Amino acid sequence: MNKNRIVFTGGGSAGHVTPNLAMIRELNQEEWDIVYIGSKKGIEKELIEKVNIPYYSISSGKLRRYIDFENIIDLFRVLKGCMDARKVLRKIKPNIVFSKGGFVSVPVIIAAKMLKIPIFIHESDLTPGLANKISQRFATRIFTSFEETIKYFPKNKTTYIGSPIRREILQGSAAKGRKYLNFHSKLPILTIMGGSLGAKKINETIRSAIEQLTTKYQIVHICGKNNTDHSMADIEGYKQFEYVHEELADILAATDIVITRGGSNSIFEFLALKIPMIIIPLTLQQSRGDQILNAKVFEKKGYSIMLEEEELTTKTLITYLDNVYEKRHEMQMAMNLYPNKNALSYLVNEIRNIR
Ligand SMILES: CC(=O)N[C@H]1[C@@H](OP(=O)(O)OP(=O)(O)OC[C@H]2O[C@@H](n3ccc(=O)[nH]c3=O)[C@H](O)[C@@H]2O)O[C@H](CO)[C@@H](O)[C@@H]1O
């Protein structure tokens, strides 16, 4: 039987990879040859290695919205990336390219367009990232996590489908999670996930409040690469991780409240799992403000409360936590009303239809 071929791309941070992982696991590998194109050193390389599919790396450059000398060098890197991607695509001859955004996806999309390969893209944030802004004109179909996002893209090819969530994230076991963490069931579990790359100020504030926090909660602190603090390794009821892979499902099943960045994929996962959230979005100094917008929509719908990083202190942290814990059932009721659109099955069906 002749197999169909699909190329996935996207990277830079885990949020541009985990939805791809969800689809890769969903597509029948007996029907599909699946290939990934990513950067040489990005997190996508590490994450895709775990699913055992061919990975091609290309040259990639950062896309900036401001004037900088580095832009000239990066422009050459992007052009080189287009040539690299074109070479890979000509060799693979895929039926479709699927992009989850991030800098590395742009050369792949441009090369796919030159070779007339159908292109699907998915936008996770409320407003489009720069990569997807560029890619939209080349895309055959565009899908979004937020309903509000469709207005930023051409109407005739854009569909709101929700967030494609990895199935295994929804199938965790609370008992296994507690066992893995060595936590009991007498105190609630608070998980802190500072985005896939960690979050310095959130990490520092959690640590400075740790004595107070551990009287009320057992704490899972996902701090980002090289951010664990060895001097705190023996504190009872406090577990630190740089990044959590397959155990995340069980940890989240055991979690009562989460403190999170406003990364779209993470907050949609917490919504699907009905875990009340405090969202501390990346600030305008650190980002284009997409997480602030994501957080505002979630707060308005009653799924979470937003704490701006500028307001983050030990005191506000404790006050917000008490507030969310008190309102947790109310928040879960609001989350129950969220219409589950099953974006993952939708996308996989649309991909199958194109072959
Ligand atoms: C700094 C930056 O550019 N952040 C962006 C990035 O965030 P970031 O990469 O942090 O993305 P998200 O929060 O959207 O997704 C993170 C993903 O990694 C997973 N995960 C995370 C930690 C961990 O230990 N284990 C694990 O599996 C989460 O379950 C989730 O699936 O992409 C998001 C989606 O476009 C944007 O909203 C963010 O603004």
UniProtKB/TrEMBL annotation:
SUPFAM superfamilies: UDP-Glycosyltransferase/glycogen phosphorylase. Cell wall formation. Catalyzes the transfer of a GlcNAc subunit on undecaprenyl-pyrophosphoryl-MurNAc-pentapeptide (lipid intermediate I) to form undecaprenyl-pyrophosphoryl-MurNAc-(pentapeptide)GlcNAc (lipid intermediate II). Its EC number is 2.4.1.227. It is a peripheral membrane protein. CDD domains: GT28_MurG. GO terms for molecular function: undecaprenyldiphospho-muramoylpentapeptide beta-N-acetylglucosaminyltransferase activity. InterPro entries: GlcNAc_MurG, Glyco_trans_28_C, GlycoTrans_28_N. The keyword Heme does not apply. It is found in: Cell membrane. It catalyses: di-trans,octa-cis-undecaprenyl diphospho-N-acetyl-alpha-D-muramoyl-L-alanyl-D-glutamyl-meso-2,6-diaminopimeloyl-D-alanyl-D-alanine + UDP-N-acetyl-alpha-D-glucosamine = di-trans,octa-cis-undecaprenyl diphospho-[N-acetyl-alpha-D-glucosaminyl-(1->4)]-N-acetyl-alpha-D-muramoyl-L-alanyl-D-glutamyl-meso-2,6-diaminopimeloyl-D-alanyl-D-alanine + UDP + H(+). It comes from the Bacteria. Keywords: Cell cycle, Cell division, Cell membrane, Cell shape, Cell wall biogenesis/degradation, Glycosyltransferase, Membrane, Peptidoglycan synthesis, Transferase. Residues 6-144 form the Glycosyltransferase family 28 N-terminal domain. One of its GO terms (biological process) is cell wall organization. Residues 190-334 form the Glycosyl transferase family 28 C-terminal domain. It holds the Pfam family Glyco_tran_28_C. UDP-N-acetyl-alpha-D-glucosamine binds at residues 13-15, 166, 196, 291. HAMAP family: MurG. Its main location: membrane. This is UDP-N-acetylglucosamine--N-acetylmuramyl-(pentapeptide) pyrophosphoryl-undecaprenol N-acetylglucosamine transferase. It comes from Lederbergia citrisecunda. GO terms for cellular component: plasma membrane. Pathway: Cell wall biogenesis; peptidoglycan biosynthesis. Belongs to the glycosyltransferase 28 family. MurG subfamily.
